């Protein structure tokens, strides 16, 4: 299989977890504290992956300057993008409750969809970029993003259902985002494999900065809001799981 096709495949695999989580969250009446616990675990997984996989890879390729500039730039770009969609009704897009209805906030449905896309694209691009050297995917990155996408889709879909959004809307949103995740991973490989190591390093760090900002802005507040004192322990468990995976995979 060509590397570009493999990049699209792995991006689709990671993105499919959003649909899996959405199906569970929409169909089952899962307690909010359990959703929060899964969210905390997913946050720990992603923190470990960006620290030991994405940031380390960026540093090895481009050194401290490219990595630090990209990392901060990713955080700034994500924050500006999320501020824009939050003002239109997407602030609680990861929440399993208290999402606005369309009657309460017209246009919030589209804002929720765009916000979810803003959250997911950096992760997918990082998968494609990880394949530039040698054509092999970073199994740690894919596993971490897959594990974190399940609670993201679960929590958001539960909130969308509670806000009265239709089944077609919920699965349409997550299906489109899963498909775009595949395309973003393909773009991460196809676009950036012709650039210098410094540019690749900076782009990898941009993705890492955006992911960390997303965690602090959406996933971790949702986890703490319901799991309270246990959120830290569960997050540590997720971090440790991804750390062990990275060492056993040789990452």
Distance between the termini: 23 Å
β-strand amount: under 5%
**Share of residues in helices:** over 70%
Which structural class is indicated by helix and strand composition?
A: mainly alpha
What is the number of strand segments? 0
Helix-strand pattern: HHHHHHH
List the helices and strands and how they pair.
Layout: H1 3-27, H2 32-90, H3 108-129, H4 139-162, H5 167-192, H6 197-227, H7 231-248
Helix pairs in contact: 1-3, 1-4, 1-5, 2-3, 2-4, 2-6, 2-7, 3-4, 3-5, 3-6, 4-5
Q: Would you kindly provide a written description of the structure presented here, covering whatever features stand out?
A:
The chain is mainly alpha-helical and 251 residues long. 82% of the residues lie in helices and 0% in strands. The chain is globular, with a radius of gyration of 17 Å.
Summarize the structure.
82% of the residues lie in helices and 0% in strands.
Keywords:
about 250 residues; mainly alpha; globular
